[in-house]
Amino acid sequence: MGAVTTERIVSLGAGAAGLSGGTERYERGGGDELATQDMILNIGPQHPATHGVLRLRITLDGERIVGCEPVVGYMHRGAEKLFEVRDYRQIIMLANRHDWLSAFANELGVVLAVERMTGIEVPVRAVWARTLLAELNRVLNHLMFLGSYPLEVGAITPIFYAFRERETLQQVMEEISGGRMHYMFNRVGGLKEDLPAGWLDRVDAAIGAVARRLPDLEDLIFGNEIFRARTRGVGVLPADLVHSYGVSGPIARASGVDFDLRRDEPYLAYGELFAAGGPGRVVTRTEGDSFARFDVLREQIHVSLDLARACVERLRTLPPGPVNVRLPKILKAPEGQTYAWTESPLGLNGYYLVSRGEKTPWRLKLRSASFNNIAVLPELVPGCVVADLVAILGSLFFVVGDIDK
């Protein structure tokens, strides 16, 4: 990779080298033996620790971090401007790519905004199928981080277990949509097509298999004393910083912020699923450290599997019917504006849609979860050593394309 570079190296004073009688002191650390100054270190933009094209400009006093500046934009595609020159059917393709681990959830936010603007009522069968697919996509997202985060602290085995479970669920997602990453299964007014014959049985079997085998992966990670030592008490995020920076999703809930749109502002079928006696529940922790963030992610997989199982049972009881509505050849949204937000796997995804009555949006502003989540990093790392920076960064669960858009 070769992406770790220094802009300014540590300099030794003449007194420290024994070439003169004078002595110099540390600028920050103090001491009479060695004269030094802060070092600026670039991690990235292409580096194994950054999960993508992200650059961190950190200021070091020895191994101690005294400042951190995330430098974003290396993957910027100008998606919001591209939205403005494509019609409401075409923007779905663009929207599902900024967070490639949550493609279905990204599509969902766009179509919900357009449906709200146009007043389209989605068939009930499509509502429950969307909810099922959204939760399966959430599990796929979380399994990726459940397997990859231990890599940050030197454990390679968990990712093989996690990908076994991902493949089990990917098979049913690929069967219904034809895609492994970019599903393109949402449509304005519903879904692309109905569920294949026997698909619900295969989904139920996949959910059961993942639920049975998941404890093997959990024991492998949470039973590891090295993992616990590297994450407990590291990168503690207070609740007030969560609110100040707009942090959301598992990261916010690990700091005790009890907020989840699926329960607090329900959409799709979540109002029923999170009602009293339903399978839905909001997972929170109070520690706010890297371990708590990972623990919330782990438990949310179990909750999403329960929600998906409930959706399967409901779909089995629904009578046959349409999964979309017939749209005009040219779909235009009336003049106005709306804001639709969803509880995506990484946090709050918001879509602010402004229409002037044309077939393309006049403005479609994307509020991505990863941008706010990574923005809080400079508050977490000062005082930590470089090794802890990697553990903290990995626990923020971001996708670089979701930061840059």
Automatic annotation (TrEMBL):
Topology in membrane: Peripheral membrane protein
Localization annotation: Cell membrane
EC number of the protein: 7.1.1.-
Domain of life: Bacteria
UniProt key word Cell membrane: yes
GO cellular component assignments: plasma membrane
Xref: InterPro entries: NADH_Q_OxRdtase_suD, NADH_UbQ_OxRdtase_49kDa_CS, NDH1_su_D/H, NiFe-Hase_large
Protein name, UniProt field: NADH-quinone oxidoreductase subunit D
Lineage, broadest ranks: Bacteria, Bacillati, Actinomycetota, Actinomycetes, Propionibacteriales
The gene coding this protein: nuoD
